[in-house]
Amino acid sequence: MSTDQIIAHLQRREAEVVERLLSDKGYACSSAIDMPADTILAGLHQRAWRILHLAGHGEHGHAQGKGKTVSGMVIGRDTFLTPGDVAQMRHVPELVFINCCHLGKTQSSDPRRASYNQLAANLGVQFITMGVKAVVAAGWAVDDGAAELFADTFYQRLLAGDAFGVAVREARA
Q: What is the pTM of this model?
């Protein structure tokens, strides 16, 4: 298995864990695991999502020819979920969980990483701007095994009735 295949497998497993946890608590879930990019984008706008969980890979400044670059979450070959896609959502979710490298970082003193704040603003800040009550996003490269454990613990605690901050703290522990 290539590194990309291993990463995709771990992200898929994380999504499956989250879907199972929510389904077991009576939430109607819809998964876009391994779906084509146009299906993912259509599904994003399909209905009012209470919880939106995104697990994937983030890119900043990905070259798309003729000097054009794009930043966002990779959802297909040279296809990204961008703030423009998010801004077009008719309904605002209550909770957005983004397990995607560097999307939560909004500041950096390291000039080599200065562009990651732009990537963060790309999605996490867009969700906040549109009125999402709570956004969970990582500000660093996310280890896929740790990401799955964090998501599992976070949702278990939240669905058990813990307050948002307590669920985050327990997941971080």
A: 0.82
Instruction: Give dist(CA 75, CA 56) in Å, integer.
Output: 8
H-only helix segments in 2-125 = 3-24, 37-46, 83-87, 116-120
> Residue 149: what pLDDT?
92
Q: How far apart are CA 99 and CA 132, in angstroms?
A: 16
Contact 85, 135 (CB under 8 A): no
The answer to whether 50 and 95 have CB atoms below 8 angstroms apart is yes
Query: CB of 54 within 8 A of CB of 81?
Result: yes
Q: Distance between CA atoms of 126 and 105, rounded to whole angstroms?
A: 13
The H or E element spanning position 134 is: strand 134-137
Per-residue model confidence as pLDDT tens digits over 119-170 = 545 788 899 999 999 999 876 677 778 888 999 999 999 999 999 999 999 9
Beta strands per DSSP E along 41-117:
51-56, 58-63, 69-76, 79-81, 95-100
Q: Which helix (H) or strand (E) holds 135?
A: strand 134-137
pLDDT tens digits, one per residue of 104-118: 444 445 454 455 445
Q: What's the token pair of residue 25?
A: 């608590």
DSSP label at residue 113 = G
Going by the DSSP 8-state scheme, the letter that residue 78 receives in this structure is T
